[in-house]
Specification:
The protein contains two helices and ten strands. The termini are close together. Strands 4-7-2-1-10 form a five-stranded mixed sheet, with no helix packed on it. A five-stranded antiparallel sheet has the order 5-6-3-8-9, with no helix packed on it. By secondary structure, the protein is α+β, with helices and mostly antiparallel strands.
């Protein structure tokens, strides 16, 4: 069986160009990109001197604009809105929706700006009952999972990247040799 490489490249090149074009557009388009994540969820037990023990819960949501354009009218939706603090201070207001839920509305987040919203509440309320999503005029925020991770030195990361590149080149060469042996 002989493969007509002219036909393969004629068919594949527009498809590849389509995917590359979409990627370039998404990568370099000036638009806001909101990401949000939980930085911590904690429960505390406190007993004042000579008093009754009490428990309270806390968690923080970090909101960051990683895009190249300002995000406008950011809405942090809450089924239950407990005591909260926004750091660093930004202009915001609270809107009560017809169903009784509440939104914290922040007029704008410039590119690269990051804020932390910390919540304080008491049982039986848990973190999952507080936050119900983040959106802005330009779309929904990407909620990402963040885990603490060891940070390796720069020299170690570069060494690992070099080994990966050598491995990729080796695999590509072996595939090339294998294909040329099969074709002959």
């Amino acid at each position: 069986m002989v493969i007509d490489w002219n036909a393969v490249t004629t068919i594949a090149s527009p498809v590849i160009a389509l995917f590359v074009g979409v990627w370039v557009n998404r990568r370099f388009e000036s638009r806001p990109v909101l990401i949000s994540y939980f930085s911590h969820v904690s429960a505390f037990r406190y007993t004042p001197p000579g008093g009754q023990p009490s428990q309270f819960n806390t968690h923080s949501v970090v909101l960051r604009n990683t895009g190249r354009q300002s995000a406008t009218n950011i809405r942090l939706h809450h089924t239950i809105l407990p005591e909260f603090n926004i750091w660093p201070d930004v202009v915001h207001n609270i809107e009560i929706l017809p169903n009784g839920s509440k939104d914290i509305v922040i007029p704008t987040l410039v590119p690269g700006e990051e804020i932390t919203v910390s919540y304080l509440y008491f049982p039986p309320v848990i973190a999952g009952q507080v936050n119900a999503g983040v959106k802005c005029d330009q779309g929904f925020a990407n909620q990402i999972t963040v885990l603490l991770q060891r940070q390796y030195p720069r020299w170690f990361n570069r060494t690992v990247i070099a080994f990966v590149l050598v491995g990729l080149v080796t695999v590509a060469y072996l595939i090339y040799v294998g294909v040329t042996v099969i074709v002959r």
